[in-house]
Amino acid sequence: MTLTNDMYHITDIKEIGELTEDQRCEFSRITETFPFKANDYYLSLIDWDDPDDPIRRIIIPHASELDNWGKLDPSDEKAYTLIPGLEHKYSSTVLLLVSQVCGGICRYCFRKRVFLRECEEEKLDLSAALQYIKSHPEITNVLLTGGDPFMLKTSELENIIRKLREIDHVQIIRIGTRIPVFNPYLIIENRALLDMIDKYSTEDKKIYIMTHFDHPREMTDAAVKAIDLLQKANSIVTNQVPLIRGVNDDPDVLAELLAKLSFIGAIPYYIFQCRPALGNRAYTVPIEEGYEITEKAKAMVSGLAKRARFVMSHSSGKIEIVGKTDNFVYFKYLRAAEDINSGRFIVLKSNPKAYWIDDYEDNM
Length: 364
Description:
single chain; 2 domains; two-stranded antiparallel ribbon; 12 helices; 21% strand
């Protein structure tokens, strides 16, 4: 099948003909709470003969999503939202929610609150955000996220980037995106987007593209082409992947993903513990099991492929899971909301059923 940027987007699960009538009825009940979105390109990657197909698991609803488990805002982002659409958790980094639209909706999404309703606190006040950044010279990094920034018109995205580049102390602009996965043709066929990135990713102030490949089968020829074009546009590409039950919780699969990312020069950056968001129970892996999976996967690949750190984005900071023994688990703050805690080492008694650091009881 020849696919291009002119894709068919599906928001009604009942339009998925490969599902049974019973499944369409069951899943439509779920999507009344947690919306569904996909397109013909991404759905074409599914092996519909395999009920456990990992791509299917990423995009098609699961009955357990309605279980009463998790929080709508598991990392307490609202607590760090200082003005609409701007989060300032770490001193040198600001996060801007520039879009409320994604190319598809992952079922395990930790920011699904963006899609549930019109949230005033999520709508970016760009003028106020720029003024805030200007008045805080310690901010050197700005992360554009959402939703997906690449779902904006190129002119809209350029307007944001151009204004950020006018602020001298902003050195790095990051763009968090899953468009190379959901619709690589949106990059391949958009010369204006690539030219814009090349214009503002300069010798001394780079644009980083934070991609989000979850499974090796998402790395199609078109996806790899999109990454290559982004790199030729002078951006630096890194990848973040959540550890998801039934998708990449097999060391062989995770190792294959890390290796392929290294082959195309997309730096493996973080492997995330799946956040305990509302509806995410079926997608989560306990922390200690996740640590063993990531270490087994890293043992199979080269140093270039094993640079990703296994972390959780906790309300208090970015916490790396650095080791475990039979009795204890070892954590370290890579970055903390309170600078005094950055680098802090934590030793906790083992709890194989823990999904988040809050599930541990004894701090040694």
